[in-house]
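Dear support,

I submitted the protein below through the web form. The confirmation email said the job was done, but the results page showed an empty box. After a refresh the structure appeared. I'm attaching both so you can tell me whether what I see now is the final result or a partial one.
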Amino acid sequence: MDNLSIGYSDQRDTDRARDYLTPVPAIFQGIKSPAVGRMRDLMDESEAVVAAERSRIASEGWGARLLAQEYLLQRRLFRSLSTGKVIDRNWTRFSFPPTYHYDVLRGLDYLLSAGVKPDGRIDEAVDLVAKKQHQNGRWPLENLHPDRVPFDMEGGAGTSSRWNTLRALRVLDWYSARD
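What the results page shows now:
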């Protein structure tokens, strides 16, 4: 999907991506519980659909994207729909690069990139992001994943994260402009 996200919609692999994404609405309709793996799949597929729309290989308004957004919003990005409890504490700890892992900051960043208008269902998630800002004005890298990354992008866990700071500032700016 990297080709799509940077605008190479004429690449041979893009045709395969388009063919793969076409049945995505059926995937989202089958999601009933917010299991960790399913949230990760939902985020990966949703980001791919937005990239496909931007590269014009898919039409605006795919039902899949709208279903995914509603799924996230109904759960306030990290809470169980039935109990209201936090589904996975790791989702409240921000990482970069998130690779295929989900966290609240990634979910908010997705909603921003998808052009979703912020509403009250994201208030708690945005408050979580705002509270994590350090006194130096930056956000920390909280959750390192064991995934192989070909080069260092950040310091260690607990250090200030340029990428989390950038994403958090974008999300807070998007949220504050909602009125």
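Response: this is the final, complete result; the empty box was a page-load delay. Residues 79-179 form one domain.
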